[in-house]
Amino acid sequence: MADDFRNHLANERTLLAWLRTAVALSGFGFVLAKFGYFFREAHLQEPGFARAGTVVAAGGGFVAVLATLRFLANRRSLLGTRATPSLLLPLLLALGIFLLDAYLTWLLLSGGPP
Q1: Are 30 and 58 in contact (CB under 8 A)?
Q2: What is the spatial distance between Cα 2 and Cα 110, in angstroms, rounded to a whole number?
Q3: pLDDT at position 17, please?
Q4: Which of 14, 41, 64, 85 has the smallest C-beta neighbourhood within 10 Å, fewest atoms?
Q5: Which of 70, 23, 33 is nearest to 53 (CA)?
Q6: How far apart are CA 52 and CA 58, in angstroms?
Q7: pLDDT tens, 30-40?
Q8: Contacts with 49 (C-beta within 8 Å, 6 or more apart), sequence order
Q9: Are 51 and 103 in contact (CB under 8 A)?
Q10: What residue ranges do the domains of the chain occupy?
Q11: Are the C-beta atoms of 25 and 91 separated by less than 8 Å?
Q12: 22, 14, 40: which is closest to 112 by C-alpha?
């Protein structure tokens, strides 16, 4: 019985860790977007930071939703109504980070979108 309780607590800690990641992504996206607005206010060519920041901030919300869905799936699994949790969240997050990194690298190397 104590092991079951510890598993539920571990599931909740995992949810909280994913939610912290979502908040960090949203905050980083906000900083990126504001950096883009700084370029515009200084009448410089804005290399796409505002769009990238918006995507990252939206990604934070997406991670929060997926983390909640994964938490619920793990909870059902722990209660015995479902076999195993999905790998959707970690795979999508890894793909999203890779694509974002590729886009930001392209922005930095090319000086901005065409």
Answers
A1: no
A2: 56
A3: 94
A4: 41
A5: 33
A6: 10
A7: 888 888 877 77
A8: 32, 33, 35, 36, 39, 107
A9: no
A10: 2-110
A11: no
A12: 40
Backbone torsions φ then ψ of 18, nearest 5 degrees:
-65, -40
CB of 53 within 8 A of CB of 36? yes
Q: Write down the pLDDT at residue 62.
A: 85
Q: Give ∠ CA 18-23-27 in degrees, rounded to 5.
A: 145
Spatial CB neighbours of 19, under 8 Å, sequence gap ≥ 6 = 64, 67
| Cα dihedral sign, 101-103-104-106 | positive
Measured distance CA(25)–CA(4) in Å, rounded: 32
